[in-house]
Amino acid sequence: MRFPVPLLCLFLITASIFAAEKGSTSEKRSARNSLPAAGVLLTFDDRNMNQWVKQIPLFRKYNAQVTFFVDHFHTLTPQQLEALQQLKAAGHTIGCHGLKHRKAVDYVRAQGMERYLKDEIEPAVKQMTDAGFPPTCFAYPSSSRNEEIDQALLKTFRHLRGGTGLSAGQRMRDLKSIYVPIDQIASTGCLIGTGIDYAGTEKRPDYLTEIKDAMDHAKQRGEIVVFYAHNISDEGPEHHLQPLVLEAILAHAQQIGLATLTYDDLP
Ligand SMILES: [Zn+2]
């Protein structure tokens, strides 16, 4: 079969455009998979997307991307789903925070692992996937976890997030579990974060200094440090981080050359 010359040209041009696009897509993917020398993972939990979405310009100003862990996905309003779409389109990662925000250890103890996965994890993953947000990561509600549940969940998710707090007099830079060396990220299923809600407020006046110090520590040692908060707003009543404090954190990351990563960036 012989094609007329103009048609053949059109075919070749189309084919080369397609090949070029394919090339750029795979380059993007490999760029996301090559990790920087050190980084900070900022994560935000629950269903504060109508507030989170207002911070897209702030994140963009610092070229920063973060992870949002969402629970009760099946109850989200069209407006909340639209906010998540905007966050995703801005390069942020949407992760799973359970179907009904159940405490994993309690539920597994009472109902067994199989029921926990069937009741809390599988329907949440399905809801998110059907809505166009297939999750690669999961954050434990109330940081309730153990090794056995980690292993079960790592069949579904690439990485998990647990949490820990400071004991009296302890400095954040000495909180060993919140730091993972960059070259051990791929083999560390569950990353541990520490809470940064209320940093810089009267509740935690010196906490912003602690956070910056922890970021310096990660940068110096080639590690990733993990933080979590909830709402991003000036006022409560719920747990929140003030936009001004978030900006101070993002500015500090930029100043010391510490990459802001999301869970989807992790190998
Ligand atoms: Zn939560």
Walkthrough of the structure:
The radius of gyration is 21 Å and the shape is globular. The chain has 2 domains: 1-33; 35-265, Glycoside hydrolase/deacetylase (TIM Barrel). The model is unreliable at 12-31 (pLDDT under 50). The protein has helices at 5-33, 49-52, 56-61, 78-89, 104-111, 113-130, 147-153, 207-221, 243-256, and strands at 39-45, 67-70, 93-96, 137-139, 159-164, 179-181, 190-195, 223-229, 231-232, 240-241, 259-261. The strands form 2 sheets. Strands 1, 2, 3, 4, 5, 6, 7, 8 and 11 form a 9-stranded mixed sheet that branches. It has a two-stranded parallel sheet with strand order 9-10. The termini are far apart. Strand 7 (190-195), helix 8 and strand 8 form a beta-alpha-beta unit. The protein is α/β, with parallel strands linked by helices and 267 residues long. Helix 5 (104-111) packs across helix 6 and helix 8 (207-221) runs parallel beside helix 9. Zinc ion (ZN) binds at residues 45-46, 97, 101, 141. Zinc ion binds next to loops.
C-alpha-based Rg, rounded: 21 Å
Instruction: Give the CATH level 1 class of the largest domain.
Output: Alpha Beta
Q: What structural class is derived from the secondary structure elements?
A: alpha/beta
Uncertain stretches of 5 or more adjacent residues: 12-31
Kindly state the percentage of residues in helix.
Answer: 40-55%
From N to C, what is the helix and strand string? Answer: HEHHEHEHHEHEEEHEEEHE
Distance between the termini: 47 Å
What coarse outline follows from CA principal-axis ratios?
globular
CATH topology of the largest domain: TIM Barrel
CATH superfamily of the largest domain: Glycoside hydrolase/deacetylase
